[in-house]
Write a structure and sequence with these properties.
This protein is α/β, with parallel strands linked by helices. The protein has a single domain, classed as Rossmann fold. Helices cover about 40% and strands about 20% of the residues. The protein contains 9 helices and 7 strands. The protein has a 7-stranded mixed beta sheet, sandwiched between helices. α4 (about 75-85) links the parallel β1 (about 65-70) and β2. The longest helix is centred in the first third of the chain and has 16 residues, at about 15-30. It is globular and about 40 Å long. It starts with a helix and ends with a strand.
C-alpha cells in the first residue's frame, strides 16, 4: 500500500491534550531558535507514516539499527517506535535539550541523545555501533540549515559513510520549496551519494504539504 493510499484509508487521529502540548513546545522552540528547529509545527501523522513506509518497507533485518536525526517533538519517532516494536536499536538525536528530554520521557525504549547531528560517528562509536555492519536506516527530520546540502560541510557524506551497504537514508522536504536552490542541491547530492533515489508524491495532509526522499545503497 502506498503512503497516499494509507492516508486515505486511515483517517488522521484527533490529537490528545499531550500531543497539543508537545506541538506548543515545538513551536516555542522554533520561535526561540528557528535555525535549530526545522519547522514551526510538528509533522503530521500522515507524513510520519510516509516517512516510516519509506524507511522500513524493505528493511529485511529482524533487528535493524535505526538512527533518527532531528527528532524534534517525536512525530517520526513515535511512528518508527510503534512499527519497530522494541525489536530494533533506535537512536534519536535532537539538538534542543528540552525537546530531547521530553521525548526521552515519552519513549524510554528509544535512546534519545541531546547532541548535534554532526557528531553522529562519535555517538555511534561511544555506543559500540560503528562496526562493520553499519546503520540500517537513517531518518532525517532536519532542515536545510543543519543538512547543508551542496556545501563543503554537508552532512550527507557523513550520513552515507555510517550506513550499511544496503542502508537507507530518508529525508522529507516541503513541496513548495522543492525548486529552491537548497532542495535542488539536496536531490543532486543524494544522486551522487546513493545508487537508488526515489521521491514520493506529495503528502497533502501535512502543514505545509511535503514529499519524502528515499536514498538506498550508498556508493563506496
Amino acid at each position: 500500500m502506498s503512503p497516499e493510499e494509507t492516508d486515505v484509508d486511515r483517517p488522521e487521529p484527533r490529537r490528545d491534550r499531550g500531543a497539543w502540548t508537545d506541538a506548543a513546545r515545538f513551536s516555542a522552540a522554533f520561535l526561540r531558535s528557528p535555525v535549530a528547529t526545522a519547522s514551526v509545527w510538528p509533522s503530521s501523522t500522515a507524513l510520519a507514516r510516509a516517512v516510516a513506509d519509506a524507511a522500513l518497507a524493505r528493511c529485511s533485518r529482524p533487528d535493524p539499527l535505526v538512527v533518527e536525526l532531528g527528532a524534534g517533538s517525536g512525530a517520526f519517532t513515535l511512528e518508527l517506535a510503534r512499527r519497530l516494536d522494541r525489536r530494533a536499536r533506535h537512536l534519536a538525536v535532537e539538538l534542543n535539550p528540552g525537546l530531547a528530554h521530553r521525548l526521552a520521557e515519552r519513549l524510554p525504549e528509544v535512546d534519545v541523545v541531546p547532541a548535534d547531528v554532526a557528531e553522529l560517528p562519535t555517538l555511534l562509536a561511544l555506543r559500540g555501533l560503528s562496526g562493520a555492519r553499519g546503520v540500517d536506516v537513517v531518518v532525517s527530520g532536519l532542515g536545510w540549515s543543519a543538512t547543508r546540502p551542496g556545501r563543503d560541510d554537508s552532512l550527507l557524506p557523513t550520513v552515507a559513510s555510517t550506513l550499511a551497504d544496503d542502508g537507507v537514508f530518508v529525508q522529507f522536504g516541503y513541496t513548495f520549496t522543492r525548486w529552491a536552490a537548497p532542495a535542488r542541491a539536496l536531490e543532486h547530492e543524494l544522486q551522487e551519494l546513493f545508487s537508488e533515489v526515489t521521491t514520493t508524491p506529495t503528502v497533502w495532509r501535512n502543514l505545509p504539504p511535503a514529499i519524502v526522499h528515499r536514498a538506498a545503497h550508498p556508493r563506496r
